[in-house]
Amino acid sequence: MSFLVQVNDRPFEDEPRAGQCLRTYLRERGWFGVKKGCDAGDCGACTVHVDGEPVHSCLYPAVRAAGRAVTTVEGLAAPDGELHPVQRRFLDAQGFQCGFCTAGFLMTTAALEAERGTGHDDGKLDDLPRAFKGNICRCTGYRAIEDAVRGVAHTERPCAGKAVGSNVGAPAGPQVVTGTARYTFDVQVPGLLHMKLLRSPHPHARIVAIDTSAALRVPGVVAVLTHEDAPDTLYSSARHEHPTEDPDDTRVLDDVVRYVGQRVAAVVADSERAAEEGCRRVEVTYEELPYVTDPEAAMRPGAPVVHAGKGPAMRIARVENNVAGEVHGEIGDVEAGFAEADVVYEETFRTQRVQHASLETHGCVAFFEPREDGTGERLTVRSSTQTPFLTRRALCALYGLREDEVRVVAGRVGGGFGGKQEMLTEDVVTLAALKLRRPVKLEYTRAEQFYGATTRHPFTIGIKVGARADGTLTAVQMRVVSNTGAYGNHGPAVMFHSVGESFAVYRAPHKKVDAYSVYTNAVPAGAFRGYGLGQVTFAVESAMDELARRLDMDPLVLRERNVIGPGEGMHSPIGEEEDLHIASYGLDQCLAVVRQALAEDRSAEDAPEGWLVGQGAALAMIATGPPGGHYADARVSLLADGTYDIAVGTAEFGNGTTTVHQQITAGALHTTEDRLTVRQSDTDVVRHDTGAFGSAGTVVAGKAVLLAASSLAERLRAFAARHTGVARHLCVLGAESVDCAGRTVPLKELYEAAHALGAAEELAADGHWGGSPRSVAFNAQWFRLAVDPGSGEIRILRSVHAADAGKVMNPMQCRGQVEGGVAQALGATLFENVRLDERGEVTTAAFRRYRLPQYADVPRTEVHFTETTDAIGPLGAKSMSESPFNPVPPAFANALRDATGIRFTEAPFTRDRVWLALDRRERGVGASDRTAPPGRS
Q1: Rounded CA gap, 511 and 532, in Å?
Q2: Are 99 and 181 within 8 A, CB to CB?
Q3: At what angle do helices 702-724 and 657-668 cross, to 10 degrees?
């Protein structure tokens, strides 16, 4: 047949393959602005126009585009490059963070705007929840997207040296809105092979035999890799500066599978279709083994042992009891503390598995490229990772390679949230690339993200708190069980962190903890925003609220009476961290914001008649970086054209660190951000960077950038003084020149003079920061809710968040981090739940079965920043990426308790769960001390 389609006014006559969707057809022809987020029509990241109509190209057969005009995000702008009005508004409002979903929102908005005033206009742009029901954003919380649609501009262009504290736009903004920002797979690699993984159907089994002969006969299949091809080396998929933080319990491909979904074999072929068929043809003989999916059962004597044959040498605490790690500690005597108490509250709280759901799935491309010195080839791995340097280190250790033989680079990363602090694809792709000496790609499907990646750790927290009649805490005791799943990546570290700041934020003379990270035959858990702290904070803040009710005390007063204050030590039963300090204190201001919101609030008047109304608050404290060292190197250089180059290792995935690094440099060099370029997330760029996790992008990498930029400023003044003969103190840096006692010396002239003298190194400076000492950040959240007793529906009437971020480097961007954290936490609070069946198999492996917050679900949160300046962070800044998540679930639970009189102890608070609890109380079934008469406050 003859086939012709116009794509962005260019004709294409290549016929699509049988069954090919329009998304893959477009991407194969270089239109990388069309993204893969789900391949099921759920997320909208692949939205394009076909004859002006928005369609999800992952569902649209490419053959149907014959004779039609297709427009992708790259084709929205005018031929002369002038942005489409919608692109301009998204740029001016910074209606994005990671940007992976942005093309979908742009294309949807542009199509609806084109319908304005026509017969097709059905008013969707006036009803954005309806307009965007087919689009998902995981990062922003949607407020920035609404502002972009409505034309509310936020970005600023500050004058030279004044960038810090202003709303400087993201450097990659123009590329994001035009679809030219390059994410992991937005590259064309000649001769690329595709990998697909055969995964285990059993929760626990030994592989007796694998027959790959039929798979190898599939046309296009090049290789099938099994455990016999993989190194015997044990390692952890978790990435930490110190690998000893995690158990070495993982093989690239193992002869024992420990959960449904574990990889068994890797099929490499010249197409994804051939690789998938090859997987179907691999014949595996299994010996099924006993399995356990409940962590309490897993610790009992006689339970199936998940990692039989391993032990202390692999840093597994008690392999025979499936305990990956544990911590026990006590301050004082909790029994005596409870005996002193007038009121004691005891309860067990549970949190569920949550998926990171970053729209760009895990994956990487490995290929060989010539060395710059012409001495052969080296391996390059382009990966969707938060940790390029740690991944290179792990690959070198695993395959016996030198660091100069491997380069790891991350393009723009489409969301992370901790999930990409793992090595989940690079290890097996590197195995194939080294074996075949050809480029190999592995890109997870959305389903694989659910059963082949990691989740947030599900926790069970038994908590007991006691207080005197005046509200003074006497004792706090917790027993914490964290389900780490089949592998211990991040397990012990998450457990340890969960009982640190959650204990330390409140004063009590007696504290005790027993915490366990437990193996089960289930999908592994891993790093997730908050790193365990959010799970335990849910229990602590719920318990504090309930204790206040039993004391007949205002919950805010109880908190104010017991929180640590400025300059106080932070005491946790797991021991004190000597490098952790309260270097600035904004918790009192956070609580004042909540009190003010409560005093002035009139939102209860918006509740429908007959609905139950309540309010609640919670607070949280978090360290502004991981313990044990988090390292960053940076280099800032003057270039020949008089602009500057910033080299830093940290990855950009919507966290905004690139913008902050530009702002810091612009301030130190008294220039403007448009005169700065950033090279980042590439092991070729700087000596080392631990990675973009633990909220370290500003407080660690930013500190290194500040040191480098400040050092360069001094060097430039010194060289300008030598060049002109003017005293150094009379040389003043400007945006494009140095003023030397009235003589203007262009930066270009300084560059030329330095190179003429062989002094080029004087025009560059390095900075290094080791992540210690560390400070703490505080957050508080307040909600007013309305609950329909007839259906269990919950409406958020008002949401207020107070954040102690120190010196706010970029208010627009920091506000977006808070809003995104609140939105993600609301998903975990209300409906997100990775469900497993009795065999541990994930049953919610698609967005339409796993409910993510959409535009209609997320309220506009009022964000307030405290006025503090940190003594440790760069220019007084503190971290604010993870911490907004943590107080949201308990604040919501406390408001729900206030409205219904029922203490909900297990997340998520789904509509059916709320209705059933109300119905049981109404019928007098199962009433307990968790219930009380509902109020309307």
Answers
A1: 19
A2: yes
A3: 30
Structure confidence at residue 374 (pLDDT)? 81
pLDDT at position 930? 63
376-413 pLDDT, tens per residue?
Answer: 899 999 999 999 999 999 999 999 999 999 999 999 99
Long-range Cβ contact pairs of 551-557 (< 8 A, separation 24 or more): 551/342, 551/343, 551/467, 551/469, 551/471, 553/471, 555/616, 555/617, 555/894, 556/591, 556/594, 556/595, 556/598, 556/617, 557/471
Crossing angle of the two packed helices 85-93 and 143-150, in degrees rounded to 10: 140
For residue 661, give the amino acid letter. Answer: H
For the beta carbon of residue 467, count every other beta carbon within 10 angstroms: 28
Residue 932 is predicted with a pLDDT of 58
Whether the Cβ atoms of residue 562 and residue 506 lie closer than 8 Å to each other: yes
Beta-carbon count within 10 A of 625 CB: 31
Report the 10 Å Cβ neighbour count for 10: 11
Note the pLDDT of residue 524: 98
> 297 by DSSP, 3-state: which?
helix
Instruction: Identify the pLDDT of residue 119.
Output: 84
The one-character DSSP state at 806 is B
Which stretches of 453-537 are assigned E, i.e. beta strand?
459-467, 473-485, 510-519
Chain centroid to CA 731: how far? 44
pTM: 0.97
By the 10 Å C-beta count (0-12 exposed, 13-18 middle, 19+ buried), 100 is classed as buried
> What gap in Å lies between CA 79 and CA 83, rounded to an integer?
9
Residues (pLDDT < 50) of the chain are: 927-929, 935-937
d(CA 100, CA 83): 19
